[in-house]
Amino acid sequence: MDFRLPFATLLSLCLAGAAQAATPAEVVARHVESMKAGKLQPIMDDYSADTVVVTPQGLVADQAPAKGPGIYSGQAQARRVFTTLTDKDHHPGIKAMETTIEPAGPDSVILHWVQFKGQPQQVSGKDAFIVRDDKIVFQAIFVD
């Protein structure tokens, strides 16, 4: 029996799937686009089920523990962060933020951001991301 054709078909399907995988920078760019649009579900679709998101102290109401950074493990907990960032009080800054994406390794990216640039309420920072298999598995948010 000649296995060349089935093997060639299988190989081409595998290679086609691999070619469609987004780079970490592309995943983060998609994330930023969803954040600016304020669309919670597309934001969450970029995160793995076991993601970890670390935030500055006090970003999310009722953070536990109350002191120190917020640590949100798993998609359900991470959703609390992005529900806050897309609410009416926070979204104007997100929508207007300027960003630069800096690849930092094979699975890591640094997002540099500025909200309200040149205005009295200007705030800036960096987010560090680890991306694997087209999903964000870790994010840490740092405010300058």
The CATH architecture would be Roll
Helix content: 25-40%
Gross morphology is globular
CATH topology term: Nuclear Transport Factor 2, Chain: A
Strand line-up of the largest beta sheet: 2-1-6-5-4-3
InterPro entries: NTF2-like_dom_sf (IPR032710)
Signal peptide: 1-21
Keywords: Signal
Protein name: SnoaL-like domain-containing protein
What does this structure look like?
The protein has 144 residues and is an alpha+beta fold. The protein has one domain: Nuclear Transport Factor 2, Chain: A (Roll). Helices cover 37% and strands 33% of the residues. It contains five helices and six strands. The protein has helices spanning 4-19, 24-37, 40-45, 75-85, 91-96, and strands spanning 47-55, 70-73, 98-105, 108-115, 123-132, 135-143. It has a six-stranded mixed sheet. Strand 3 (98-105) and strand 4 (108-115) form a beta hairpin. The longest helix is centred in the first third of the chain and has 16 residues, at 4-19. The mean pLDDT is 89.
In short:
By secondary structure, the chain is α+β, with helices and mostly antiparallel strands. The protein has one domain: Nuclear Transport Factor 2, Chain: A (Roll), CATH 3.10.450. The protein is built from five helices and six strands; from the N terminus they run αααββααββββ.
Write the layout of secondary structure elements.
Elements: H1 4-19, H2 24-37, H3 40-45, E1 47-55, E2 70-73, H4 75-85, H5 91-96, E3 98-105, E4 108-115, E5 123-132, E6 135-143
Parallel strand pairs: 1-6
Antiparallel strand pairs: 1-2, 3-4, 4-5, 5-6
Protein name: SnoaL-like domain-containing protein
Organism: Sphingobium fuliginis (strain ATCC 27551)
Signal peptide: 1-21
